[in-house]
Amino acid sequence: MVKANAYNVHVDKSALLEQHTVLVKRIAYHLLARLPASVLVDDLIQSGMIGLFEASNNFDATKGASFETFAGIRIRGAMLDEMRRGDWTPRSVHKNSRMVSNAIKELEAKLGRDVNDSEVAEKLDISLNEYHHILSEVSSGKIIGIEDLASGENGLNLVESNYSDDPYQDIEHLAFKKGLADCISTLPEREALVLSLYYDEELNLREIGKVIDVSESRVSQIHSQAMHRLKARMQSWQS
Length: 239
What we know:
elongated; Rna Polymerase Sigma Factor, Chain: A; 2 domains; Butyryl-CoA Dehydrogenase, subunit A, domain 3; mainly alpha; 0% strand
């Protein structure tokens, strides 16, 4: 009987992997539309398959989520982890990103309000065009994501925390999500809309541009500035 049960588990796991291979490809192509041309879809699919295999090993049906939902989180997380390990973004872009976040933080603390592009550019002592170029570079490098706002050496693991056995980590995760939602609600209206369309509605930059009637490159800049503003306002979550 034990052998039969073990065999059935093996068959079920194999079936899960086979049935959800298409999910890996769908997530890979969805991410690819948002990434630089240097990223290969085959690399995304390979790392996504590892995420799917891990999901099949760790899925617990008693947690309440469907396997597809759980696997989707694991697959996307595996793809993003692999991309970060092979970060192609120049150090200068990371440096400029930190510089922008710090400038926004200092200006907003001083003025007590949202600051605009021109004010940040003036603070950095660069032209508005140069500032927009920095925002576009950061956006192209994808070096700030929602999950990075709580990351650091001891940061939250947002992919895992919905399924954690640690109640304290679950509480911290919920607190972060509430803090993030509250922070997004304080963003300038257009920045909040762009984030909502990008992360909630899962539109790409071109589609968002059509919705708000601006160019794709301008959407990229708005998204990048929104993320820098969030990073500045949620610094307490970053170690």
